[in-house]
Amino acid sequence: MSLKGIILAGGNGTRLMPLTKAVNKHLLPIGDKPMLQHCVEKFTQVGITEIMVITGGEHLGGIAEFLGSGKDLKCNITYRVQEGAGGIAHALALAENFIGEQDDMCVILGDNIFESGLSYAVNEWHVRPNNSAMILLKEVADPDRFGVATIEEGKVRKIVEKPVFPETNYAVTGIYFYDNNVFDIIRKCTPSKRGELEITDVNNKYISIGKMKCAMLDGWWTDAGTHKSYKRANDLYNGILPKE
Known about the structure:
With about 240 residues, the protein is α/β, with parallel strands linked by helices. It has a single domain (about 5-235), classed as Spore Coat Polysaccharide Biosynthesis Protein SpsA, Chain A. About 30% of the residues lie in helices and about 30% in strands. The chain contains 8 helices and 13 strands. Strands 5-4-1-6-11-8-12 form a 7-stranded mixed beta sheet. Strands 2-3 form a two-stranded antiparallel sheet. The longest helix is centred in the first third of the chain and has 11 residues, at about 55-65. The mean pLDDT is about 90.
C-alpha cells in the first residue's frame, strides 16, 4: 500500500482578480516559485512521487505547460479536468481510478501555503491503526473563514463550515488524508445549497462513523485565495511577518 498525492487546483480565482485575469491562481508566485510548485515539493520531500493535479479545463494548458510530466520536480504527474464548479469533493472523486483499490491519498488544496513538511503527518497516518481519514488543524485568529473543528478528548467531534460563532479556533487546513473508501462516501453525499459536493460533509461522515483522526500542523499556515491572504503567504514565506 502506497500513499499518493492529489492537488486540487480548480476554481477561477475570482477573489484574486485582476491578478487572475490571464494567469491561473495556482501559477501566481509565492516567493521564488509558483504556488503550485510549493504543493508538489511538499509531496516529493516525503517520498510521494505519484501525483495527480485536478483543475478546470480552461486552466489545464498553463498548468501542464509549467509542471509537464513532473520529471524536473522528481515526480510523475497525472492530470484530470473537473468540468464545472462541482466542489472540492466532486473534484476529489475524479481521482478514483488514479488511487485504485490498494492505495491511500494525501490531498492538498492548491492555494495552501505552509511552513512545515509533511513528515510528521505521514508518520501519524502510517502508525495509527485502522486508517480511514485524517485532517490537519491549525489554530488561527479568524476561524470564521474556514471549516472549524470541535475537539473533545483528542477526537474530532464535528466540523462546521465558516461558523458565525466558532466553538474553537481550530481551522481545518486544506490538507487531508483518506483511504479509498472516501469515494464511496462522496457518492452518498448530496449537493449543498450552492450546488456543490462539500468536503466538510465528507469529513463529517467519517466523524459520524468514528473514523476521523486529526493532527496539528506545525509552523505557519495560510491559504492564498484572497488579496489579503495572498500577500500574507508571500510575507510569511519571505520571513517578513513573525512566524506563528
